[in-house]
Amino acid sequence: xxxxxxxxxxxxxxxxxxxxxxxxxxxxxxxxxxxxxxxxxxxxxxxxxxxxxxxxxxxxxxxxxxxxxxxxxxxxxxxxxxxxxxxxxxxxxxxxxxxxxxxxxxxxxxxxxxxxxxxxxxxxxxxxxxxxxxxxxxxxxxxxxxxxxxxxxxxxxxxxxxxxxxxxxxxxxxxxxxxxxxxxxxxxxxxxxxxxxxxxxxxxxxxxxxxxxxxxxxxxxxxxxxxxxxxxxxxxxxxxxxxxxxxxxxxxxxxxxxxxxxxxxxxxxxxxxxxxxxxxxxxxxxxxxxxxxxxxxxxxxxxxxxxxxxxxxxxxxxxxxxxxxxxxxxxxxxxxxxxxxxxxxxxxxxxxxxxxxxxxxxxxxxxxx
Length: 369
Hints:
GO terms for molecular function: RNA-directed DNA polymerase activity. The chain has helices at residues 2-12, 33-49, 82-89, 104-118, 175-189, 191-194, 214-224, 228-234, 269-280, 287-295, 303-312, 315-320, and strands at 19-22, 25-28, 65-68, 71-74, 77-80, 122-123, 131-138, 142-151, 154-165, 201-203, 242-246, 253-257, 264-265, 343-348, 360-365.
């Protein structure tokens, strides 16, 4: 029903750019009072043509700011729950057990703090020609982001995507994967504002990863021509489909495994530790996670063995991880030799109140048990 009504209202005000509708709520914005009167006449005439009656008691006219769908809308933008925030800080003075000398200076500082708080969540109106930036971040238990627009030297927030808690499985992701998850969820959340715009600038704590530069690729190609391990892998039944492949950033061929959906270059001994360090140092995952991370991108002989050895020799992993856990055996009680030599006492509750009492004290003699 609401969807049909929304479509019906949209078809009525489709040609009125200053009017916005959400089901049966209309918001009309104008530059000044004169244009506001003309816009109201146009909207009322459109509604009258389609037999829609307006209740004047539920309408507000000529306001510089008003609350609309949980937002306090004004010429400066829209602030989510801003009206509640105004009520929270209006005429409030800090009071606690510590004496405060209240004078003009402290009162001015307090009023300034209230103003900063109320404007902290102010959202700006989108500009069609503004450049956008999506700021994302991720912690151990949640992700969040803010969509901003850049107008000259000013950065204005357009929308917030806050406190999306991570599931139990997502909390186990590495720092790098949690940051990527934050970007993915943020783009998905703001998809309706990002599509059809200029290239979006996304910022996170993830920096660009350059595993090898152009000089390294040239040296890697030269080393492969005389690498004995590569020759042995190509002549053995290992399940790898190694063959020469051209890359866009180099005019030389590289031997890669094409047996999977992802092309995995073969890495010679000279560059293996370099690649391991750059991937492992992102979040210092464990042995199995590091093996999976590297084997999905590269291939070489004894890759899992090298990754396990280098993970165990990583200094930062040794400082922050526990590789050996002490498990204590299950304790046993000696058998009692006489009554009341060993008594177990416990409290049970809370239970349904009986005679204003809701707990039970239990005592068990192990000799007679």
